[in-house]
């Protein structure tokens, strides 16, 4: 939480607040509410994104099993952080700038300690219940839900797309020859492939 509190924010106001759910009676009740929402949201995403079937050893199948285990056991997550924004002006599209850097700091610090975490918005369908249960004022925005805990199985280095797909130099789509990755970097195959806007259709 200290790392989260060091994050930048607009005008250095630090309007982010963190409501931490551990093992108190209201925390248990809130986790039950969130667990229901997470299971419903995952079921919707699972169907919409076409999970199921295929090679059971493929990265997508492993992700599917991990997600199902996560939502099925949500109430057992040791810590759930509700990242909030104490608004000082009317809601606007830019207010996330003052809370999401703190969420990033929190996740990076948790990872450095061997914890797993994820930032989600799957609290949204049950936000009204959470507000009432946890006495969250109307002027406070619920910006994210961050479950934290020790992962099941290995917790190796993360895999992401190669820098050549993510970093451009001087103009859109231009390779950045100076953007080097550390030796031995492994890449992911998950997610949609980048569009080939300039590919020939002939």
State the gist of this model.
The chain is α+β, with helices and mostly antiparallel strands and 202 residues long. It has six helices and four strands. A four-stranded antiparallel sheet has the order 1-2-4-3.
Describe this structure in words.
The chain is α+β, with helices and mostly antiparallel strands and 202 residues long. Helix content is 33%, strand content 13%. The protein has 6 helices and 4 strands; from the N terminus they run H-E-H-H-E-H-E-H-E-H. Helix 2 packs antiparallel against helix 3 (59-72) and helix 2 runs antiparallel to helix 5.
Keywords:
13% strand, 202 residues, alpha+beta, single chain, disordered C terminus
H/E order of the elements? HEHHEHEHEH
Number of helices: 6
Largest sheet composition: 4 strands, antiparallel
What is the terminal separation in angstroms?
A: 55 Å
Q: Helix- and strand-based class?
A: alpha+beta
Radius of gyration: 20 Å
Oligomer: single chain
The total strand number stands at 4
Note the overall shape.
globular
How much beta, percentage-wise? 5-15%
Strand order of the largest sheet: 1-2-4-3
Percent helix = 25-40%
Mean pLDDT equals 90
List the uncertain runs.
198-202
């Amino acid at each position: 939480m200290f790392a989260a509190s060091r994050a930048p924010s607009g005008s250095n106001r630090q309007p982010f607040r963190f409501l931490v759910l551990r093992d108190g009676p209201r925390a248990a009740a809130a986790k039950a509410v969130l667990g229901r929402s997470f299971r419903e949201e995952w079921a919707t995403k699972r169907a919409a994104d076409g999970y199921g079937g295929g090679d059971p050893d493929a990265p997508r199948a492993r992700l599917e099993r991990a997600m199902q285990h996560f939502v099925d056991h949500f109430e057992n997550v040791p810590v759930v952080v509700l990242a909030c924004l104490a608004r000082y002006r009317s809601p606007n599209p830019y207010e996330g700038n003052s809370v999401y850097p703190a969420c990033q700091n929190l996740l990076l610090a948790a990872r450095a300690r061997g914890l797993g975490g994820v930032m989600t918005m799957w609290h949204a369908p049950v936000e009204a219940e959470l507000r009432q249960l946890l006495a969250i004022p109307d002027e406070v925005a619920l910006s994210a839900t961050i479950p934290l805990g020790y992962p099941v199985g290995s917790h190796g280095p993360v895999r992401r797309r190669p820098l050549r797909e993510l970093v451009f130099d001087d103009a859109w789509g231009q390779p950045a020859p100076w953007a080097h990755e550390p030796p031995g970097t492994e890449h992911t195959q998950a997610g949609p492939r980048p569009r080939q806007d300039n590919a020939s259709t002939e």
